Request: fold
Amino acid sequence: MRSQKRLASETLKIGENRVWIDPERIEDVEVAITREEIRRLIHEGAIKAKPEKGVSRSRARLLHKKRKTGRRSGAGSRGGKKTAKLTQKEGWMKKVRPLRRRIKELRADREITRDVHRKLYGLIKGGAFEDVPHLEQYIEANKLRRRR
Reply:
């Protein structure tokens, strides 16, 4: 029976697992030993090819629908560095705007002079500070606050 299945799979150009043999014609198949006899049994319908098993797209469709509505996009689903999702320009804007806002507040509250504001503005533009606390630390360390 093994050689018949092998011959049938070669003739049908499919894998051995996909060869179907009619349970009522097993005796006829067992007797067949040549390729010609196997071809005849295939023609008669005693041996057939089972349909291919596919991969269901239903799960993929469901996930696609969820992603379209904005689900499944949390931190755990992201690849690459944190900066990979932002362009360099966007990253720069996110960093610079709060810093400029802070020195504007300090000048408005008269905590720093106009000259110090200009100096800090230039430093911010040059990328000297990472964030607002870093800027505050610099102001304290260099005693740039106006004395009351």
Notes: The mean pLDDT is 94. The CA atoms of residues 78 and 85 lie 9 Å apart. The helical segments are 2-12, 26-31, 35-44, 58-68, 88-108, 114-125, 132-141. The first strand starts at residue 19 and ends at 21.
